[in-house]
């Protein structure tokens, strides 16, 4: 994370599976995450549908993405 920042690059934490991991990374200044905490891997068609949803509806999107 520090190397990416030093190089002026955006940093995305991968493999975030728990709220504790997300909170720890946020305390270090990382605010972009991906992993099972947010969604299981999705087929392209499902991802496209979810990506069209309004950002304010994240709870519903998260419920839809966790099904499977």
Characterize the structure shown.
The protein is mostly helical and 68 residues long. The chain folds into two domains: 1-37, no CATH class; 41-68, no CATH class. Helices cover 46% and strands 0% of the residues. The chain is built from four helices and no strands. The chain has helices at 2-6, 19-27, 44-51, 58-66. The protein is globular, with a radius of gyration of 14 Å. 1% of the residues are buried.
Poorly predicted regions are none
What pattern of helices and strands is seen along the backbone? HHHH
Biggest sheet, in brief? none
Please compute the radius of gyration using only Cα atoms. 14 Å
Can you tell me the number of structural domains? 2
> Mean pLDDT, rounded to whole units?
83
Number of helices: 4
Structural class assignment: mainly alpha
Question: In what range is the share of β-strand residues?
Answer: under 5%
Task: Report the end-to-end length measured between terminal Cα atoms.
Answer: 32 Å
The proportion of residues forming helix, as a percent range, comes to 40-55%
How many individual β-strands?
0
Shape: globular
Task: Summarize this entry quickly.
This protein has 68 residues and is an all-alpha fold.
Write the SSE topology:
Elements: H1 2-6, H2 19-27, H3 44-51, H4 58-66
Top keywords for this entry?
single chain, 68 residues, mainly alpha, 2 domains, 4 helices, 46% helix
């Amino acid at each position: 994370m520090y190397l990416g920042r030093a190089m002026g690059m955006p940093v995305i934490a991968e493999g975030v599976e728990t709220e504790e991991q997300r909170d720890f990374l946020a305390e270090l200044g990382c605010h972009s995450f991906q992993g099972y905490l947010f969604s299981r891997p999705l087929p392209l068609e499902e991802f496209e549908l979810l990506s069209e949803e309004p950002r304010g509806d994240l709870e519903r999107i998260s419920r839809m993405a966790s099904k499977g």
